Amino acid sequence: MEISDLYNIYKKYPEISTDTRNSPKDSIFFALKGANFNGNEYAEKAIDQGCAYAVVDEERYATRPNIILVKDSLETLQELARHHRKQFIKKPIIAITGTNGKTTTKELIYSVLSQEYNVLATQGNLNNHIGVPLTLLRIKKEHEIVIVEMGASHVGEIRFLAEMALPNYGLITNLGHAHIEGFGSFENVVKAKGELYEFIRNTNDGKIFIDYSNLLLREMSEGITSIYYGLEEDLFISGKVTSISPFLALEWKFGNKRNKVQTNMIGEYNLSNALAAITIGKYLGVKASLICKAIEEYVPTNNRSQLKKTEKNMLIIDAYNANPTSMHAALENFDHMDVNHKVLILGDMKELGPDTDMEHQKIADYISDHNFDRVMFIGDNFSRVKTKYPRFKNLDHLKEYLEKDPVEDSYILLKGSRGVQLEKCIDML
Predict the structure, then answer these.
(1) Strands 93-97 and 207-211, sheet pairing
(2) Are the C-beta atoms of residues 169 and 93 closer than 8 Å to each other?
(3) Is the pTM for the entire model greater than 0.85?
(4) Per-residue pLDDT averaged across 307-314, rounded?
(5) Hey, how many other C-beta atoms are within 10 angstroms of the C-beta on 4?
């Protein structure tokens, strides 16, 4: 089937589904494949549950007139998204990538722009070769601006996603040591994220937003129209931290006008994320008062820099993701906080490849040089570091330890990769 023919079907049934556990009536089900599943096997079930059509790529599953056989279901989904984006080519798209802060920054930008525009943004962190086309296929006539988060773990992925989304604006939040297992080296991380700049460079009237303090990003952006934000006074937007006890408070300046904002976010590192959202909002004409309102009303979710009070302690939960860059930032922020009795519970950092042991040892060494009251390490990687602090292979061993020696009347930082599932120990604290 030609993509134009499939697009005509999509215009009649403009909802897309990839999971029969959540398939809206009259949607089009795309049978995707994963390491442990084959979506083709669920095509008939999708139709029985009310999907208007199903798209499969194995002939034996094309058993009904409304089950469409294609060469590759995923490639067809991506091509359909590319075709749909071109129908709305005048709608501005802001693409966001980077090592840390992508999702938080995306949500802050959405909060700011939604004050004055009808905005569509990536849901959650659906930022890969499946999530981006699903976002693009949600674009409707009434949307005025689209925000697309782009993630990658290999060189070439950002270029592929940019060629699908055709962004007019680009933002790289930062560059750090993450997904080294996939990228192979930090140099490849830089190359991969820089693919967004390369796309914008070749876009008519394309622009990028840059944290001026990041010299590497400034060097990479040479020749591209750039709008700067940061600590320096003479930038498009300048800002500074005014408090971190425990929530981040900041002041930002546009021209001669200064504005104060009290956020619901933990961490000095969120200053750059907030300034990025403020910059994009101001550049696109959102009033300063509405920008402040949007930043102040934003509340982090999904274990991203959340503050939680228990009966015994105050928890800073940052257990969605961890890599050396974000781990150091979280530790530095915690070290600077003016609170009594600080406790660290740190889980492994994943996907670091040959750098795994070295990067975990660096974290242990940093902690040894600073004054934390108690420290606990969890996971296979941290269990190999040289340290005076207790190490636990898994959460069960940590639970046994905490039952014998509980933590009370403390501020506790929980930080680790998603796979460690540190949130499971919240009930013990």
Answers:
(1) unpaired
(2) yes
(3) yes
(4) 92
(5) 8
